[in-house]
Amino acid sequence: MKARWLGLAGYAVFGTASAQPSAATLPFVLKPIGPGVYAAIDGPEHKAGSNAGFVIGDDGVLVVDSFFNLEAARALVGEIHRLTPKPIRYVVNTHYHADHTGGDQALREAGATIIAHKNVRGWVRTNNINLFGDRITAELRAAITALPLPDVTTDKDLTVWLGSRKIVVRTVLGHTGGDLTVFVPDAKVLFTGDMLWRKIPPNLIDGSVKEWAASDAAFAAMPGAPRLTYVPGHGDVANVSDVRDFRAYLLDLQKLVGEGRKSGLKEDALAQFVAPRLKALHPDWTISDRAIGFEVKYMDQELAGTKKRPVPTAE
Ligand SMILES: [Zn+2]
């Protein structure tokens, strides 16, 4: 399950339709987390590639993220139609990564307007190719370059009304440079996208740990935080302790890489210094050596001031 670390399923990539799965074979687990609010948590086989969710309002449905492939997104549409006759009006992409946008076309075909940070429009068909590195295939490249572009883009917070139901979409810093969260005040639910991972090392390829840790501190300091439900981009439904735990993980990584750098360690030697210490500090996390290798490399670049992050494109 090496591809797991990227939060990317290694198969069923953007695939075409197959038979509608039964509840037992859904690629995600649907969890009610508030009145008309559901988290769709990637199943144990990681066929959905990431988490998603949705909110049923008075006059329609808003979906958060679309998984990595069309099968999973179509299964989500099927579940929504099973639960409510109301139309699917919006999908909010929390960021451009393909494991959260790969199923957008299925949502669009179901009637959704795609809302995203304004930088997503410039990145979704191009930077997603970089995301796969040497794992890119011709099929995947073709699928990425055909991804739908968002219909509504923003670099500011915005409020979406589903009748009288208020949903607050906020811009946040840390994971990619084009990140949104979705807050449902009446249900006390925050969909964080990949600003939060639960007990799984995050993908730092486009990130700034400095900004990211600050954003997670703000999530944990939200009014009524002990009673909030947080839906992470990867891992199970979370609470404020998980948010603090994730932030601590980021800061531990930053500290350990900083210590190794001070001792003159580089590359593999730096990763070998960090790995056992980070695992010991977070014994209940699932941390592969491959994941640590990438995290140490990106953290080292951030501390050295050489980290490359996606650059906003002209509209
Ligand atoms: Zn992700």
Key traits:
7-stranded mixed β-sheet; 35% helix; globular; 12 strands; single chain; 5-stranded mixed β-sheet; disordered N terminus; 10 helices; binds zinc ion; alpha/beta; 315 residues
Account of the 3D structure:
The structure is a single chain. With 315 residues, the chain is of the alpha/beta class. Helices cover 35% and strands 22% of the residues. The strands form 2 sheets. Strands 1-2-3-4-5-6-7 form a 7-stranded mixed beta sheet. Strand 8 (158-162) and strand 9 form a beta hairpin. The longest helix is centred in the C-terminal third of the chain and has 23 residues, at 240-262. It is globular and about 60 Å long. Mean pLDDT is 93; it is low at 1-13. Bound molecules: zinc ion. Zinc ion binds next to helix 2 and strand 12.
The overall pLDDT average reads: 93
Ligand identities? zinc ion
Largest sheet: 7 strands, mixed
What overall geometry do the principal axes of the alpha carbons give?
globular
Number of strands: 12
- Percent of residues in β-strands: 15-25%
Binned, the helix content reads 25-40%
- Poorly predicted runs are 1-13
Name the strands of the widest sheet in spatial order. Answer: 1-2-3-4-5-6-7
Radius of gyration of CA atoms, rounded to a whole number: 19 Å
Structural class: alpha/beta
Helix count?
A: 10
Short description:
This protein is α/β, with parallel strands linked by helices and 315 residues long. Helices cover 35% and strands 22% of the residues. The strands form two sheets. The chain has a seven-stranded mixed β-sheet with strand order 1-2-3-4-5-6-7. A five-stranded mixed β-sheet has the order 8-9-10-11-12, covered by helices on one side.
